[in-house]
């Protein structure tokens, strides 16, 4: 660890030397805008700041919490007022959108020197290089398709963790018959869509790609999508009456305390569960959400940092240094242990540094799904289509969950209509 | 209570003694019921500020504390990590004060004079001027965000507290002008006419007649502006960066639909800290609600 | 309206200026209001028909965004909600605020304590109080659970999870938040009323409710106008409350226009459509304010004719 740190510092001073040679007296500075304002995530970002300062930089940050809209509102205002931020946490298709405005900085120099192309998970590379140049540095990989289950309820009824959606429905029927809640859920557009991501993916992976990655409206109107909505309707029936106004943490607690059997959510659950004192294997199991095709599946979500063009030499140097540190194995370990996710580079050893069993299993499944060609990016977590399409789709999905008078056929058509409307 | 002694009349002082007692009990009963309803969320926030996180997560929010611990209050004020800086809410507190106090004073003072001019010195087109100023209260903040960003960028005030003071003052004048103008309308015009015949000018009448009449509406303006600006989140977040951010940036962290874990107890304590200055103003301002500052007192 | 100094002869300049003092005092506010109200609105209207997406873009793009907006279910629901919420919330807060102000005006003991209790909701960010009300209203953490715990197992109180009732939860919480401020303004108004007027009514033998209805409240009608305007702007700008309480759910049942504007402009990078939604908010406002302006204009004329 310390040795690597030294290499890092040496690398940073190497860059500093190089700029000295060209005559510029730049001192690396940065102000990173992000939405991790508290808890372990904020601590992980603070670590990034420490590493930045240890490498000779001057670190400042602007933490904007709450809704992502707040971060984006600040970003837009800053760009409009002529003060684009040096580094911003942005993800998915937004990287390409901002890249298209011409406001983002090019990181190819750092990427080439550090060999990012060789170590970054392939599914992420296209997102980080929208037009062939590196404009973003990926911080982590989240897995969206986790199924957490209650050992207590499964044990009581002698059930195995279901592997297909039919098994899942059969298990739920037994669990409900025994007087338990089958699925813990807190309804919101993003969480309803998280569940739907897993359903469509598990039922038909080609449909998922066509509908959610390509925004193909014919796929949205297809029988496969109708079947997926029918499965979602069935699952809403397996939930209790209190899903509205419940947070995802409360739903998590329901499953961890044996009040409900299953909980479908991304791996950030692991970080939260650990903090609340729940123990993996005792209070919860983690498995991939059911798939009707045999194999390992992985729905990917990733956080990343985008760099905007700066006039001040100090900030330009700061961007190079920050990008380098974000991609360093040290930072990737610290950050991801805290966040429940796994590193965005595939060459980090997860058996050290405090990763949980679930996280390690996540990495294995990631590798397996890359091999099997089953890896996809998450629609619900803004990794595929433009926000305007995603927002329109999420409205339809969350309305479908809330209003049981909408039939699966209607929902599939509404999904396609909503996307078509956005042009 | 000191603030009730000067009241010059008692509306309930009619009818028989028995009827008065009955009316009075009804008044207290109603006040008590409303108070209970109004206080319930505060009580819940307060209790959760003393409970260990594990207890809250396991037992839910609405339940009595098993044990009381004051450590979360200390943590909230001085050591809790928000945005990577572990100095609690104290750091944001002073930013917010620096923004709220000037903006409140400026907008209240300007609004008071505006209200006076618009209600007691009628001129052709005055209702149009008043109408235009009042329209300002309806501008949705989300809509004005980008134009403000552009204006602040042009005049060199982006990412400064001075910029926020400007935004809040401009917004606030609409409200304070509205409040003061409509309050002063109830002041008899005869008072002003008499003073004008005596040769008093605009400012003299303002000082001698209007100011002494203003305390109740002044405190309303100050309450409105102070709490509004204190709790405002959007402008504070969007128009400042890093260490200049206001306390609401810390408070809103609690609402987060983010994927991190939540420290409900520390959050609850922080919320109460953030609410103390407005509450302080309510209590202090209370004594300016005295009746008796009516025409009789000025004549 | 402004004095033109060039026409004034020197010795009379100061005299003329002092004659214009009321107008001069208003000039800075007027300039600010022109920029803030007129120019910002015009800018938004132009942006709504522009080609703006991620960032503002001044090139003309037509009225397509309005068409798209009005085909969105979420927008239509939110626009309907604005009118229902606006009406019930404004009326509810006015009635509650007036009642509280009159109660406090009865020479009650500990007046400032009562006043502070009813005002404090304004002091705490909605983001927080909305969350607490959500816990109270939620069947599994709040009132329903408490009733079940004390043995009333059939008790049901799940408005917040019911599509048809959730908006009323939002309205209730809104009234809880702002009625205290209505109370403060009305109380200030009550205290501006000439005490002699009330004494006279009492000497005439009017009862307490009658004194208020016939003498006191009509005197302070401008205050009620001010309170209504304040509540109306709250209704139109409602954002935090809904985000903290229901996040616009179940489904889109409690979405309000300000949420749609913010989402379109900032979350989804559809600035033109967001501006179109903002313009529609201004239209809704005009639907309320224009009839009021016409009515008060007619009233003023009639009064002038009456007195003349």
Automatic annotation (TrEMBL), chain B:
InterPro entries tied to this protein: MetI-like, MetI-like_sf
CDD domains: TM_PBP2
Highest taxon in the source lineage: Bacteria
Location(s), subcellular: Cell membrane
Domain ABC transmembrane type-1: 93-285
Membrane spanning stretches: 26-50, 97-117, 129-149, 161-184, 205-226, 268-290
GO terms (BP aspect): transmembrane transport
Gene Ontology CC entries for this record: plasma membrane
PROSITE patterns the UniProt entry points to: ABC_TM1 (PS50928)
Keywords annotated in UniProt: Membrane, Transmembrane, Transmembrane helix, Transport
Family: Belongs to the binding-protein-dependent transport system permease family.
Protein name, per record: ABC transporter permease subunit
Automatic annotation (TrEMBL), chain C:
UniProt membrane topology term: Multi-pass membrane protein
Source organism superkingdom: Bacteria
Keywords: Cell membrane, Membrane, Transmembrane, Transmembrane helix, Transport
A Pfam family matched in the record: BPD_transp_1
Record has Lyase as a keyword: no
Annotated TM spans: 24-49, 82-104, 116-136, 165-190, 215-236, 274-295
InterPro entries: ABC_transporter_permease, MetI-like, MetI-like_sf
GO CC term (a single one): plasma membrane
Domain ABC transmembrane type-1: from-to ranges: 79-291
Name recorded for this polypeptide: ABC transporter permease subunit
Organism: Oceanomicrobium pacificus
